[in-house]
Automatic annotation (TrEMBL):
Transmembrane segments: none annotated. GO terms for biological process: cell-matrix adhesion; integrin-mediated signaling pathway. Coiled coil: none annotated. This is FERM1 protein. The keyword Nucleotidyltransferase does not apply. GO terms for molecular function: integrin binding. The lineage of its organism: Eukaryota, Metazoa, Chordata, Craniata, Vertebrata.
Length: 679
């Protein structure tokens, strides 16, 4: 028999570290406990022993060796596996974090270090007045991007850290619960259509006080242009491998900040990770629209996404228009809000949304009964060896998701020369409005790679109709889809911005305009043109956008960004199963693209709509995906953890389930089911 005194010897000592700022009180405390004590009881014993009068409700135990929180306070120490050698730290769950936003502004706020990153980002977005937090995530700058900056200037300070916006006193940042009805569809529109800033009543959803109103206003407006010196200090990717470094540091949405090595006062980037900007509404999304615009602007300036010289001048003109409009606004007082301007901006949004397989379903009966077709004379260009091209005119017929072409119109009733199925193909614009060149490059999947076909149109209208049809067909949609006309109008609108004529006044007096052209274009074009030449060319492009309001200029900029062939692609270096060389994998909102790392040419495209299932072998870190028609691929990721690609695929599929008709609360459980994985 064991006596009660001997049984008492089964207690053991546990050393606990208390994270507090009180002088004269030991941070390390030793308690005598048993393994059947639950975590809540351990907290109580510890607080009673240290006798510090303060609110401990935000504190929890962090297990240093296992990198995990002990948040289930009803679990016993035995159930958690805590033994005498465990290093437990009693610390606050909410800690200060610095976040660099897309507009390069750094904010400092209190964030939950114990919640999953998905929930933490949701709370951050409530503080910043950004709806649809599921589109954003947190990014650690990769070592490759940081090293390049240091080499350029060892003495340079981190940009934007000197001017930090402190939001630590906001209610959500302090760990208080957010308002469940925050984004009710019936809330009163509170939007200034000219400045794009939230009206003061918007601020009452989050906090009281003029300081918070001022902070939200800062985030809703673009306040400064960047200098060439600032651009030179920042990381600019030159190759696909460089671009892959930009996406290596995404945090795991299913784990907490602390579990991923983030410590208090660390600097992370808050970025739009998923390029599906759902339900953009200028009445409520002043900050969100501005931050999307800023992310697009920096991507253009740092050449993270490629664009032509003509397109770069359009982006420069829209930035210049925003700059000029803001200057003119600052010298005037706005006494009233014009409702028609809100309507104009809302109309511009109809072309702006990017959804996985979205579209308005109001014309379903028309879609079923009337399948339109296109028939026109187009030029077919086939690349040949020795840099020679064969160009010939054929009679083309576009029906459903296929293009057939015939020798002439009269032979269209017979067999075509060739029939091209565009489902799953890549569609790349090849346009130079000034040179009257309206080309469509089609990369059609075949057994051994991609078959290149070029179509040449005669004019803008023909190009817009055929380009829109090709874009929809690549997604498996026909011209009967209600989004076809929107697509045509979007293309025409973009072409119209490119189709400028130089006014004699702008040409002769560029020096009269207060403009630093180097602030609006990437360094490549700063080197190519002299400052006066660049100013003249930007002013030339500016003619078509000079009447736009601030918000419309931002929305058009976003729309033009979305029109670029590389829009929405996140790159990773991978090794496909059975391959002897590395390739680049592009992950987009609706497809995966295998790209040749040396040439940058697409090799194969796989659409999410054809995907049957995907899984990860966590032991060998290999992603395996099955598609229709017995197509399967497998690859390991070399430039990042395979969990990041796994989360990207699951995240885009999750975002495709969103609907305006549903309650706006997110199905967080479904997100983690699709993205979490089992390691």
């Amino acid at each position: 028999m064991v006596s009660s005194n001997e049984y008492g010897s089964h207690t053991w000592e546990l050393s606990l570290t208390v994270d507090h700022q009180h002088e004269g009180i030991e941070k390390v405390q030793v308690l005598h406990i048993t393994g059947d004590l639950h975590v809540g009881g351990l907290m109580l014993k510890l607080v009673e022993k240290i006798e510090i009068a303060q609110d401990w409700s935000d504190y929890a135990f962090w297990w240093e060796q296992k990198k995990c929180w002990l948040l289930k306070t009803h679990w016993t120490l035995d159930k958690y596996g805590v033994q005498a050698d465990a290093k437990l730290i009693f610390t606050a769950q909410h800690k200060m974090l610095r976040l660099r936003l897309p507009n390069m502004k750094t904010v400092r706020l209190k964030v939950s270090f114990s919640s999953m990153v998905f929930r933490a980002v949701s709370d951050i977005c409530k503080v910043l007045n950004i709806r649809r937090s599921e589109e954003l995530s947190l990014l650690k700058q990769s070592e490759g991007t940081l090293k390049k900056k240091k080499k350029k200037d060892k003495n340079s300070k981190e940009p934007a850290t000197e001017d930090i916006l402190n939001l630590s006193n906001s209610p959500v940042s302090s760990g208080l619960a957010g308002n469940a009805g925050l984004y009710s569809k019936t809330m009163t529109p509170v939007y200034d259509p000219v400045s794009g800033s939230p009206a003061s009543s918007t601020i009452t959803w989050f906090s009281d006080g003029s300081s918070t109103e001022q902070n939200c206003s800062i985030l809703a407006l673009s306040h400064s242009t960047c200098s060439p010196e600032m651009l030179a200090e920042m990381y600019q990717p030159r190759t696909l491998a460089d671009k892959a470094k930009l996406n290596a540091g995404w945090l795991d949405s299913s784990r907490s900040l602390m579990e991923q090595g983030v410590v208090e006062e660390d600097l992370l980037l808050l970025r739009f990770k998923y390029y599906t900007f759902f339900d953009l509404n200028p009445k409520y999304d002043a900050v969100r629209i501005n931050q999307i615009y800023e992310q697009a602007r920096w991507a253009i300036l740092l050449e993270e996404i490629d664009c032509t010289e003509e397109e770069m001048l359009i982006f420069a003109a829209l930035q210049a228009q925003y700059h000029v409009s803001k200057l003119s606004l600052s010298s005037e007082t706005q006494d009233s809000i014009c409702e028609s301007e809100v309507d104009e901006v809302e109309a511009a949004l109809s072309n702006l949304e990017v959804t996985l397989e979205g579209g308005n379903k109001s014309n379903i009966l028309e879609d079923i009964t009337d399948i339109p077709k296109l028939a026109d004379n187009l030029k077919l260009v086939r690349p040949k060896k020795l840099a020679l091209k064969a160009i010939k005119t054929y009679w083309f017929v576009f029906r459903d998701t296929s293009i057939s072409y015939f020798k002439n119109k009269e032979s269209a009733q017979g067999e075509p020369v060739e029939k091209l199925n565009l489902k799953g193909c890549e569609v790349v614009p090849d346009v130079n409005v000034a040179a009257k060149k309206f080309g469509i490059k089609l990369l059609i999947p075949v057994a051994d790679g991609m078959n290149e076909v070029y179509l040449r149109c005669d004019n803008e209208d023909q190009y817009a109709r055929w380009m829109a049809a090709c874009v929809l067909a690549s997604k498996g949609k026909t011209m009967a889809d209600s989004s076809y006309q929107h697509e045509v109008q979007k293309i025409l609108s973009f072409l119209q911005m490119k189709n400028w004529t130089m006014s004699s006044q702008a040409a002769s007096e560029p020096e009269n305009v207060d403009m630093k052209p180097e602030c609006f274009v990437s360094p490549r074009y700063t080197k190519k043109f002299k400052s006066k030449q660049l100013t003249a060319r930007i002013l030339e492009a500016h003619q078509n956008v000079s009447q736009m309001s601030l918000v419309e200029a931002k929305l058009r900029f976003i729309q033009a960004w979305q029109s670029l062939p590389e829009f929405g692609l996140s790159y990773y270096i991978v090794r496909f199963k059975g391959s002897k060389k590395d390739d680049v994998l592009g992950v987009s909102y609706n497809r995966l693209i295998r790209i040749d790392m040396a040439t940058g040419d697409p090799i194969t495209t796989w659409r999410f709509s054809n995907m049957k299932q995907w899984n990860v072998n966590w032991e060998i870190r290999q992603v395996a995906i099955e598609f229709d028609q017995n197509v399967s691929i497998a690859f390991t990721c070399l430039s990042a953890d395979c969990k990041i690609i796994h989360e990207y695929i699951g995240g885009y599929i999750f975002l495709s389930t969103r609907s305006k008709d549903h309650n706006e609360t997110l199905d967080e459980e479904l997100f983690h089911k699709l993205t979490g994985g089992q390691e």
